[in-house]
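Q: Could you fold this chain for me?
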Amino acid sequence: FPKAPELRNQNYGFTVGAPIIKDRTFFFLGFEKQNYIFGLTGLATEPSDAWVANARAKLAPGAESTLSDTLLATLWPSAIRNLPANTSNYFATVPGTGYSYNEVGKIDHNFNEKNHLLFHFFYGQGNQTQPPGASLALATASSNLGDYFEVAPIRIENYSLVWNSAISPRLTNQVLFGISYFTQVFHDKNNTFNEKALGLFTSPDALINGHPIPGAPNIAISGFDQVGITPPEGRNDITGHLTDILSYTVGKHQFRLGGEVRQGRVDEFYYRRSLGSFNFTGETTCPGVTDDPACALADFLAGDVSSASIAVGRAERKVRVNAFDFFGQDSWQLTRKLNLNLGLRYEYIGPLHSLAKDLAVFTPDRGLVIQGNGIGSIFPPDHNNVAPRLGFAYQPTANGNLVVRGGIGVFYDQINMNPFLDFRPGGAGADGLQDNPIGPSPVANYSVGSLTWQPNTYIFPPLVPCPTLSNCVNPNNPAQQLMYNVYAVGQHFRTPYFYNYNLQVEKGFGSAAVLQVGYVGSGGHRLSVMDDINLDGHLNAQYPNIGSVLQLNSVGNSNYNALQSVLRIRGWHGFSSQFAYTWAHELDTMTEYRGAIQFDYTRPKLDYGSGDFDTRHNFTAFWTYDIPGSSHGPKILTHGWQLSSLWSFHKGQPFNFNAGTQRPGVDLVGNPFAGVSHSFSKSLGGEPGEQWVNPNAFATPASGPGNLGRNAFYGPGFGDVDVSVIKNIGITERMKLQLRAEMFNVFNRINLATGAGSVGSDGTVRDTIGDFNGAPGLGPGEPFNLQLAAKIIF
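A: Sure. Below is the predicted structure, expressed as structure tokens.
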């Protein structure tokens, strides 16, 4: 029998605190170190010698490309050579690894009874090497080959200084200064490949700071594992803010006035598609055949590329965002039973900008313009963000065991920067503002249809700036007009906001139990949505060299409604617990902020449907029980025992049956559950999995959208029960040893992946939820495992 994959998660650390100056200065320090290794297992189809032989049989004599032979022998490991010509012929056992160091510290100093200073810091550093996960949320691909695991070192720092002062018995003030630092880079585990040395010449200007870009190109052969998943990329963030809050109490009123100024600085260097992206579908070798991997591999061997794209130029951008807000609040005890909370807040979140004036944006009426040199800002600043809020708490009974609470308010959201600089479109569209061919650091985003590559021959042109998107030609072939995919931001883009509202009823039952039942709702507006505004090519009359135009607009909406209930029990005969149930529904125009594009920007209602993370039913519970000691037997064995458990059950999340895309692009032509048992099989078409829907019930529409709306079906549900056994052993009066045995998923339930992208084109689910979300073995709902822990408390 095969051995279970290795799984080790080691954590150790300490916390310590003590006075530095008695009654004046205190410190606290904590440290944690984590090392983990988990034996990943996965099935994939690799281009073995047997597969290559099958593909060669489909080619005419002499049709094979020497460049393809070199890439196949170099970019794929030799371990796959002797595998059979079967799907899922490769059983991956390459482990994922990682570590982290985390420190937290705090120093408190009392100058006197009225002035107190607090300094707090956090420092974390780590690294991980594992598959990035085929996530729609991150718009990423994945590979089971160890060379293409993602390496992601990270460092995080956070510092804050807080001064609390009591100016008078009624008047207090708090000043807070904080700064945070974040940096992380990403690349393939094996990024030592040199494309030119292998004979693959992409573009003369495929360089970073004048140097060749290390790593493998992204090659996707239909039906096979991809290579070249993660090009060089990363980001560095520094955010600083200064906050002041003044509190004043008078009569029945508690007033709070405050404000904050904040600046974020981001250095983002995402060189996506800088190494080139090449797709092989088999259409050249086997026209009209879409399900034979040997055809796609034959196309690769012949060098017949179905589509290719590259981004050429310096894509790094350093941007800033300025923001400020101020607010006023009054907590008014109107009567003994009724409290009102009145608030008003103003927020300003400015457009991102660059001091180097290297951010460019496309607008249909003006073409390509540079922020600070042609256009004042990427989108007009929004100065109208006024947010009123109202809340109340009412106690109708004298004993206070019944409370009714409610509230409504407007909340403005921080504008997400990722779509502006790292959108990750599924096709060959521009990745962000940096991908426009104008300014001091232009980037040309080239894409081509079918071609046949040749060794030592450039596939793409050099970097040719094209500020007017007109009459831009390939200098090596003046007859060729170049086409550019560009990035735009709608000039009516505004700050997103939400109406949040709730009504809660809380009832106490004696001193041990509290039941809370309520309604919670939210309505989101001006949410970010990506559109391709040149799908029909109407902009080419004015801009002949323009290709796709991805435009970020704030036209999305969302709606959330939920019935929430919570029962809390504390200290009832040694038993404490919390049980919570939520019945909810969430709808939106678009959930993902990366990779997802509306089906038709002129008909946004086509994409309005259940949100990607919509969870209709969710039940969680947590309980602990202090086992009474016994007078029989040694006290060390009969006292100090505790049991605890965590339960989590929820229904599945929605998905589209169209290869994981976000579009409502299929017709429902039959019963999607005909012949489907929803039972797990160890050998479903040769692989473990569960048939979730019948693929024969779906068909591609002749044109336009299908009759099936977005996210019409829901994936598998989730269930997990964790149990902990705890033993406290007294060592001295002030010291004890705590031993813990923590068991996860004690019933070893198979929790399959759910949500967008989890159901394959054959209607099956073949991945677990932890592996699907990038946490195999260790994530929630993964197979049973045991963790042992010891803690010394003194």
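A (continued): Confidence is low (pLDDT under 50) at residues 135-140.
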